[in-house]
Predict the 3D structure of the following.
Amino acid sequence: MAISSSTSESDWAWLPTDLLDSILHQLASPIDKVRFGAVCKSWRTAVKERPRQGIQIPMLLVPSKHNIKKTRSLYSITDRTISDVNLRMPYNRRRCCGSSFGWLIFLTNTSSITLFNPFRNKKIRLPQLQKLRGYTTKSGKQYTVEKVTLSSDPTTLEDSDCLVVAIFGEYSDLVFMKLGDKSWTYVDHEHGHLFSDVLFYKGQVLAIDHRGLLLSIDVNSNLKKILAPRDLEYADLTYLVETSMGDLLLIRRFLASWPFGNDGQGMTGHFEVYKLVLDDESGKVVKRVEVKNTGDDALFLGDNYSISIPASYFSGCHPNSIYYTDDYTDTRPYYPNGPLDMGIFNLEDRSIRLHYKPNPSHKYMPPPIWMLLPML
């Protein structure tokens, strides 16, 4: 007896849970899990509800392996391969100044911010950034925005529940807005405070500068509060990340000693990691302890929203390690060999190894960036 297409679709949608779980168990690649979840609603629910499926390993957005113009591919650090997925980019040669919840963030030629979801082919255009100063060349202008982060996936909540924070300009100004606002709100701060990263942590908006100043921002009143003083030596880059156990880490990145090389290109020398303990009442940092071991956690740092995952969940992912990308924006437009400063820093022996080797023919392409894949 012939089976109609509707009956066939229904059978696929109602496969037993244990069978779906068995199939999912065999899927190591995040790309395959996205494809699995795209089959139908019940399969997508199975992906989200399966233990550990809420935790993803980031993939690296890289130039297409087939050199297809206006597209990018995804590199897996676990199997060390570039996927056959070609994601169409609206600005293929433009740097991503942020990556959050599967969304990529770009600065356009008109100094406005565009959020782009390459899996849903959806754009959200944000207001123009004022006071944008810095590089004047077309290629250099995209580096005037250091980082843009989102508090949540804009497609899963009401617009007013998604907050966008940007660090931009020669003085590393901080601005924020809720989706749907007509303009950005600027946070007043001293010009000497050069902010490097932003983290949404336990209902707070936290910003860190290059010398350890930790700031909390109330987006409703635009009031700011200093949670930790500016009392550390200057670090070339700093990051804030929440561990898989909910701890708050400050990561400080130092480039190798000058000169970097014949072309003046900087390369990472080492990292320092600190655990920040906040007072329950005041929110201020009461203890800053240097950490030599993050346990099972692997950290993913760069222009993306900083991520920490349990490495043991993913075969081939190294625990107690920092996976980093080339995100040093101060002199980036002038580097002749393209983005090269990418690696895995092991906190135990302080060694550095490669996770992705760029193709020399891609030296004019923007730096790779970590991104999480959405469950469609």
